[in-house]
Design a protein that fits this description.
This protein is an alpha/beta fold. The protein has nine helices and seven strands. The two termini are 17 Å apart.
């Protein structure tokens, strides 16, 4: 069992960026349509912005205000699919027998965004990049819990996914739209996270209706709606979230 407090949170997707927008989305969830407009990130110099992919821009847009004015803290970054657009571009270059861009290759790896965060903010605290399944949200929070237990007063948890290129859509069906979310965690007992492994989780997943939204977006909904408790189950694990304050 993990207990913690969420000191601050921020979500981003195109057209849903502030607390009131997320509250409206939580009450009437929908899939945004139209062209995705990556964040402008006017708080960064142009040279730094230019190197950031749309996914990295989404991470900086929601994580920057959560970390701004706070002492340096460890970062836990989690994504299931990572930089699919960058990687697809590299595959297209290989298929066309074109030379690969060293910059694009270096920024396509799973921990690239965590590295860019550290460089741009000049933070030397540790960072963790997780490649996750559909319960990556819970594993990211568990990783943060270990860092808190190790003596860090606060930990920044960021999760992000981008809508994949069209050829990937038959295989990636869990990203209805590009999004990112940041959470500043600290030690406390406002929240409790528990898990039940094995057959119990399988039965729960089979009996329950499929989740309409990725679990990170579900957490944003529950935070906006102040839901007291909810469950998330897949074929391997069942997670119970409980708000105690």
């Amino acid at each position: 069992m993990l207990t913690f407090s969420i000191a601050q949170w921020q979500g981003w997707t195109s057209g849903i960026e502030d607390a009131s927008s997320w509250k409206h989305w939580a009450e009437h969830p929908y899939c945004p349509v139209g062209e995705v407009c990556p964040p402008r990130l006017e708080f960064l110099p142009p040279m730094q912005r230019r190197r950031l992919s749309p996914m990295a821009r989404a991470v900086f847009e929601c994580a920057w205000p959560v970390a701004e004015g706070q002492p340096p803290m460890p970062l836990v970054f989690a994504s299931r699919h990572g930089e699919t657009t960058r990687n697809f571009g590299l595959l297209q270059s290989l298929a066309a027998a074109e030379p690969l861009s060293p910059t694009a290759f270096g920024l396509s790896v799973h921990n690239a965004i965590a590295g860019q965060w550290s460089i741009i903010r000049r933070e030397t605290t540790e960072s963790v990049a997780l490649s996750v399944e559909d319960d990556g949200l819970e594993h990211a929070f568990l990783e943060a819990g270990l860092l808190l237990a190790g003596g860090h007063p606060e930990v920044l948890v960021v999760l992000a996914e981008e809508r994949p290129p069209a050829p990937y859509l038959p295989w990636i069906d869990d990203v209805p739209f590009s999004y990112a979310a940041a959470f500043r965690l600290r030690a406390g007992a406002d929240w409790r996270l528990e898990t039940a492994p094995g057959a119990d989780a399988s039965r729960q997943a089979a009996a329950g209706a499929p989740q309409a939204w990725p679990n990170t977006l579900n957490l944003l909904r529950h935070l906006a709606l102040q839901t007291p408790t909810w469950r998330h189950a897949n074929r391997a694990r069942q997670w119970l979230w409980t708000r105690s304050a």
